[in-house]
Design brief:
Blueprint (H helix, E strand, L loop, with lengths): L3 H28 L4 E10 L7 E11 L6 E4 L17 E4 L9 E2 L3 E2 L8 E2 L5 E12 L5 E9 L5 E2 L5
Parallel strand pairs: 4-9
Antiparallel strand pairs: 1-2, 1-8, 2-3, 2-4, 5-6, 7-10, 8-9
């Protein structure tokens, strides 16, 4: 017969193993996601949505010469090269914007609490994009999955404070 301490040690060991496997699985899935550095060229508001944009992007790199690490556009990069059939068209979606509504923007900012004169804008600059697969309706009750560039970044809230 085992005592309560031994029983708890056995139970806790199995729980630790399960949580350890879960943490390892999450780590492995995130470690394997390849990303590409992209520059946002422009953003177009998506009709019928709140605070969501479709971003035109281009592949970029970082020039390490002389230690200045300046960004540059890769005209012959893996995804920008002519005749490239390996990637979606040159636009991306911001995953965090999928949660934006008329009342709230990610990560839970109430639009009503944003002072007058301030606006919620699209993301600008450089982002780490990865390819994700999104479902889309094809017609009457059918759907298809297609590849899209995705990134995750908060939307800026811009404006000027009164003097």
């Amino acid at each position: 017969m085992i005592n309560r301490t031994t029983r708890n040690q056995i139970r806790n060991a199995s729980l630790d193993a399960v949580s350890g496997y879960f943490a390892e699985d999450v780590y492995e899935r995130h470690r394997e996601v390849p990303w590409v550095l992209m520059r946002i060229k422009s953003a177009t508001a998506i009709a019928g949505t709140n605070y969501r944009w479709r971003y035109e992007i281009e592949e970029t790199g970082i020039q390490a010469a002389a230690g200045n690490y300046a960004p540059l556009v890769l005209t012959d990069g893996l995804y920008n090269s002519a005749g490239n059939n390996h990637s979606p068209p040159g636009f991306a979606l911001n995953v965090w914007e999928l949660m934006n509504t008329a009342a709230r923007i990610f990560p839970g900012i109430a639009v009503a609490n944003i002072p007058p004169g301030f606006t919620i804008g699209p993301v600008e600059g450089y982002v780490r994009c990865y390819i994700g697969y999104l479902g889309k309706a094809k017609g009457t009750g059918t759907s298809a999955v297609s590849a899209h560039w995705l990134f995750e970044a908060p939307n800026p809230i811009e404006g000027e404070c009164p003097p």
